[in-house]
Amino acid sequence: MQRIFAKAWVELSIGAVIIVSVALTLTEFAMSTATQETYGWLNVIQQVNFALTCFFVVELFARFLGVLSLRRFTSEYWIDILAVFPSLLEEFYTARLMRLIRLLRILRLFGFLSRVSSNFPYILRRGAVEYVTVGGMLIITVLLGTGATLLFESDKLSAEEALWFSIYSLFAGEPVGHDPATFGGRVVAVFVMFMGLTIFAMFTGTVSAFMVERLRTKGRVVDWDQIRDHIVICGWNSKAEIILQEYRASHLSDETPIVVIHKWDQDPPQVSASLQAQVRFLEDDFTRVPVLEKAGIHRATTCIILADTGGRTEQDADARTILAALTVEKLNPDVYTCAELNNRDYASHLKMGHVNDYVVSSEYSAYVLAQAAMNRGLMGVFNELLTYQRGNQFYRLDIPDSWSNRDFGELFTELREEHGAILVAVTNREDGVTVNPRQYIFRPGDEAVVIAEKEISLK
After folding, report:
1. Other C-beta atoms lying within 10 Å of the C-beta of residue 70
2. pLDDT of residue 111
3. Most exposed: 37, 158, 392, 425, by fewest CB within 10 Å?
4. Does one domain contain both 359 and 432?
5. How far apart are CA 36 and CA 24, in angstroms?
6. pLDDT tens by residue, 391-421
7. How far apart are CA 437 and CA 443, in angstroms?
8. Which of 82, 113, 144 finishes a domain?
9. What percent of the chain is helix, strand and coil (3-state, nearest 5)?
10. What is the CATH number of the domain that holds 406?
11. Are residues 235 and 195 in the same domain?
12. Do 174 and 125 fall within a single domain?
């Protein structure tokens, strides 16, 4: 049932039926003082409207079967219940005042617009709720004002006059075109004028926010298809800003675009001025294939997946990390993927998916604390080596052909004398990482890990 009602054509069809029902309800009000000639048509309209009410009852029952939770169903569809079920009782159905409740069905259309707002452009999507709310209040006020005016002032106004009376009073802030003679008509006029002031205030605020957003984002419209050889960061947490600063300090990505994919509850965060020209935010779920494709994962060189722990358990965050990492590797096996985990037990999933690297953040912080406690003063070494923003740092370098078949110790001395750098490890596909080996002969395809103040060129 949920899959059926999630289809756009089903929602649109129900929306069309709602519009027909509201139109028939207004027509019923307009023909309330039916003559002998129009009585037959009024009876037909009432029967059709009652049939549509039965259709809505069946539809709500089907929606309940898709939810199977009375609390959730009533919380999501209380307006629909209020607009439908009183109409089934004959004493309510014949009571003209209660017929006004049926006009509330029009609110369901705005619920549909809210659900499909994710397909709007970003600038519209951010204010979709406000736009839908203002539009909904405007239409509901006009419809209720027209119906209620016909209810109390039917002997003095026609349906068309009641409609224009509601519209004029809404925008003018005073009764225009008709002076209500009944107490009910005066209450309706006051209600329409009050709603006019409220809607105007909301409309002004919405337009102001829209213009401020347009000015703030002017010149920052992203052409995603033009981004190439970039870095993709999936997720956002306290480490993301540090990662961006490290990339900036390394000078490896002075011109490299960085795309951050995350779904924020509010506005995306503000990054430092030096990074604003490089960083592009894509506000969406990074586990979805269309989102990764939009971010240009096929053209990216590096993908970093952060643990998305916002409002989730560590297990759920790791599940999202694994799903995103495996999806990225499937879409682009050539991209270098590094993922952050909370629990090492799930690392086997990343290894089977050929994810290049992973980091168990909680473990490494514990290792650093233990080393600092057992080797006092060691934190100063870590503070320098683990950041590109000051002092020496690690570099991973391809070895030149001249290094092949030469000993690690020999090259250690040579590298120190010529570049002031320290050779600390060697990596290759077969053995992985070998740190400070006693004896090692370099082979073609090896890579050297060195400590230096800046990146050096081996020869």
Report:
1. 9
2. 59
3. 37
4. no
5. 19
6. 888 988 989 888 989 999 999 999 999 889 9
7. 14
8. 113
9. 60, 10, 30
10. 3.30.70.1450
11. no
12. yes
Contact, 244 vs 275, CB < 8 A? yes
Domain that holds residue 424: 392-459
Same domain? For 182 and 234 the reply is: no
Domain boundary among 55, 89, 113: 113
| 80 and 189 share one domain | no
Identify the helix (H) or strand (E) that includes residue 139.
helix 128-153
Q: Which helix (H) or strand (E) holds 207?
A: helix 183-216
Question: Is residue 386 within 8 Å of 380, Cβ to Cβ?
Answer: no
Per the CB < 8 A criterion, the answer to whether 93 and 112 are in contact is no
99/132 same-domain check = no
211-266: pLDDT as tens digits: 666 555 444 556 777 888 899 999 888 788 888 888 777 765 567 888 999 887 76
Is 382 among the domain residues?
Answer: no
Domain count, the chain: 4
Residues 157 and 241 placed together within one structural domain of the fold: no
CA–CA distances in Å: residue 230 to residues 278, 296, 444: 10, 8, 29
Residue 369 is assigned to a structural domain of this protein? no
Kindly state whether residues 229 and 184 are assigned to the same domain: no
CA nearest to 46, candidates 24, 77, 30, 68: 24
Query: Are the C-beta atoms of 24 and 103 separated by less than 8 Å?
Result: no
- To which residue do tokens 């800046």 refer? 454
Vertex 286: Cα angle to 282 and 292 (nearest 5): 75
Give me the helix-helix angle, 128-153 and 8-30, nearest 10°. 20
CATH (domain of 189): 1.10.287.70
What is the sign, positive or negative, of the torsion defined by CA atoms of 57, 63, 67, 72?
negative
CA distance 29 to 19: 16
- Annotate 48-97 with DSSP letters as a single string: HHHHHHHHHHHHHHHHHHHH--HHHHHHHHHHHHHHHGGGGSHHHHH-HH
- The Cα 13–Cα 268 span in angstroms is 36
The answer, as to whether pTM is greater than 0.85, is: no
Q: Strands across the sheet with 336-341, in order? A: 279-283, 258-262, 231-234, 302-305, 336-341, 357-360
